[in-house]
TrEMBL record:
Keywords: Flavoprotein, FMN, Oxidoreductase. Transmembrane segments: none annotated. The lineage of its organism: Bacteria, Bacillati, Actinomycetota, Actinomycetes, Pseudonocardiales. Its EC number is 1.5.1.38. PANTHER family: FMN REDUCTASE (NADPH) (PTHR43408). Residues 1-153 form the NADPH-dependent FMN reductase-like domain. Pfam families: FMN_red. This is FMN reductase. GO terms for molecular function: FMN reductase (NADPH) activity.
């Protein structure tokens, strides 16, 4: 079973990567409590391919390094996507990466969304920015998203953050274990019949 982490943090260390790691740890534990299937984890650090993403958007062709990361996302059984929040939305780097993924490549993909920011006031960005983006890409977005403000990492709010992490990771674990990639939903148009063909078929019916 393959899990791909997409982290759009631009610093090292990064709270965005920290949140992604905590979600991965919880997911690994919860999958381990199930059928024991081994989890293969790949991390995509977007800052490492930022220049490649920009060139892809201009030329239309990914570099070998970027193509490998795109394949890791589209070939996964589940994705954890985490972005820092800038100006009340996901980062431009995060959006640009998903812009260069082939249309339909994430159809039915179980995706857990997460975000980090300096203040709790940006927590709604999960539902007004990240969730619509993943839904547009036809991914299956987990009901629980995880937002972590600076204050959530310590003190009395830490317990609530850990609870949200475990709940969200549990949803992704269930989706990955219950819906193998081979049974992923199609785009809804695989059985489309052109209108002209429908008229021709009607003309062949006995009345």
């Amino acid at each position: 079973m393959k899990l791909t982490i997409v982290s759009a943090g631009t610093t090292s260390p990064s709270s965005t990567r920290l949140l992604a790691d905590r979600l991965t740890e919880s997911l690994t534990k919860q999958l381990g409590d199930g059928d024991g299937e081994e989890l293969e984890v790949h991390v995509v650090e977007l800052r490492d391919v930022a220049v490649d993403i920009g060139k892809n958007m201009v030329t239309g062709f990914p570099s070998p390094a970027l193509q490998a990361e795109l394949d890791a996302v589209t070939g996964a059984d589940g994705v954890i996507a985490v972005s820092p929040i800038y100006s009340a939305s996901y980062s431009g780097l995060f959006k640009s990466f998903f812009d260069v993924i082939d249309a339909g490549a994430l159809t039915g993909m179980p995706v857990l969304i997460g975000a980090t920011g300096g203040t709790p006031r940006h927590s709604l960005a999960l539902d007004h920015a990240l969730r619509p983006l993943m839904s547009y890409l036809r991914a299956t977005v987990m009901p629980t998203g995880v937002y972590a403000a600076s204050q959530d990492w310590g003190g009395e709010d830490a317990g609530e953050l850990h609870s949200r992490i475990d709940r969200a990771a549990g949803e992704l674990a269930g989706a990955m274990a219950g819906t193998p990639r081979s049974r992923r939903a199609g785009d809804g148009f695989s059985d489309f019949v052109p209108f002209e063909q429908q008229l021709a078929d009607l003309g062949q019916l006995d009345v």
